[in-house]
Amino acid sequence: MKKKGLVVVLSLLLIALAGCSTSSNNESQEAADTALRQVSDKTLKLKIEDREFVIQLYDNDTAESLLKNVPQKLNFHRWGNGEYSAKLSGKIDLTDDKTIDYQVGEVALWPKKDYLCIYYGPTPVSQTNQPQMSSPGCPIGYLKDVDQPTIIKFFRDQVEHASGEVYE
User: Fold this and answer.
1) pLDDT, tens digit, for every residue of 18-74?
2) Residue 164 pLDDT exceeds 70
3) Long-range own/partner contacts, residues 88-92 (CB < 8 A, 24 or more apart)
4) pLDDT over threshold 80, residue 6
5) Which of 19, 44, 77, 123 could form a disulfide with 55 if both were Cys (CB 3.0 to 4.6 A apart)?
6) How far apart are CA 69 and CA 92, in angstroms?
7) Predicted pLDDT at 140
C-alpha cells in the first residue's frame, strides 16, 4: 500500500514539475518575442501597386540587415487569406530569435525562402485567428498609421500577384 501511495505522490510531483517547465518555457518565449518587437526610430517604405505604406521597423539585427539591402523590386503573391509575401534578392541575416506568431499588420522575414511577409489574417497553418508562419521567422516591423480593417481590406482585395518595392 505504501508503494502505491509513493508512486501516486511521485507521479503528481512529476506532473507538477512538468507544468512548471512549460510555464517557464512560455514565459521565456514571451520575453524573447517582446525583445524582438522593440520599436526603433527607423522606417522603410513599401509600395504595392499604387499604394504606399510605411513600415515602422523593430530594433533588431534582422531589420538592420534588411535596411542595408534596399531598395528592392518585389513580386508579391498571396498565401491563403492572411499573408502577402515576396522573395528578396540577396541573403538577409537572421541572427535574432525567431517566432511563428504574428499580428495583423506585422511584417516579417521568413528565412526558409528569404521572403518578406506581410500579415493581414490567419494563414493556412494558423491554429488561432492570428497569423502564423509555417516555420519560424523574424518580425521586423509593422505597417505604420494603418488600422487593421484597412490592412485586411487592402490585402484581401489585392489580386493573387502584385508588383511592389521596398525602399528607404
Assistant:
1) 444 334 445 655 655 677 799 999 999 999 988 899 999 999 999 999 999 999 999
2) yes
3) 88/114, 88/115, 88/116, 90/114, 92/62, 92/65, 92/66
4) no
5) 44
6) 8
7) 95
User: How many Å is the maximal CA-CA distance in the chain?
Assistant: 77
Q: What is the dihedral of CA 34, 36, 38, 39, to 10 degrees?
A: -140
pLDDT above 80 (res 112): yes
Question: Which of 13-22, 73-82, 91-100, 120-129 is predicted least confidently?
Answer: 13-22
Cα separation, 47 vs 167, whole angstroms: 8
Amino acid at 54: V
Residue tagged 501516486 (cell numbers): 8
Would you state the cell numbers that stand for residue 103, as one nine-digit string?
A: 499580428
Cis peptide before 71 (omega within 30 of 0): yes
Using CA atoms, how far apart are residues 108 and 98, in angstroms rounded to an integer? Answer: 10
Residue 164 · residue 143 · CB < 8 Å: no
Q: How many residues does the chain have?
A: 168
Q: What are phi and psi of 9, to 5 degrees?
A: -60, -45
* CA–CA separation, 92 and 89 (whole Å): 9
